[in-house]
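Homework help board

Subject: predicted structure for assignment chain

Our instructor gave us this sequence and asked us to write out the predicted structure in token form, then describe one feature. I got the tokens but I'm not sure how to describe them. Can anyone check?
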Amino acid sequence: MYSDLLIEGNLGAAEQREFLNRIKSGTEKLQWMMDSLIKMSRLEIGAIQLTPAPTGIRQTISESISGVVALATRKNISIMTTALNDIELYHDRKWTREALNNILENAVKYSPANSTIAVTMEQLPLYTKIIITDRGIGIDEKDYNLLFKRFYRGQNVAGQEGAGLGLYFARLIMEKQGGYIMVDSKPSEYTSFALFLQNCKKLG
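My token output:
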């Protein structure tokens, strides 16, 4: 539609710029979705192999947070970290960073301006869980089992941009390295995602 209007040549300079920006934005979103689907498909069939190894988790988390700082700053959202011990966990840094980044991006997207996102860590005997909690719109319990399916989006996020790929991708990455992901939420109060990674040494 926008391209047809441009071809007709009846638009002023300001309108042309606006339509070109919309076309550019739409093209970038389509390219992102195609790239994401290709990566997910390659992970699913094993064409991409994760290489989990004993790796310090603090740097992985810090790099993930750095990836969403600009987005959070636009909404004046603070990302607070506590109890991030620099222990080695069995994970692939590159792909775990991508999983964490997907969760953090959602936390920023669905949080109100001037709020806080908390990132904490808890060590268990076999796993260590990384917990990301926001004070956003929340998720209904009946949606918990659907959240991690490809293309699923809850009814309460209909007005937000998104493709329903991020949580599915995060779950896939965690499972490919022997971990898993869980969610706890209360609508209009909070959402907390816990990502479980294997300890290099059993505790306790």
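Reply (TA_rk): Your tokens look well-formed. For the description, you could write something like this. The beta strands are 53-56, 78-81, 88-91, 116-123, 127-134, 180-186, 190-199. That's the kind of observation they're looking for.
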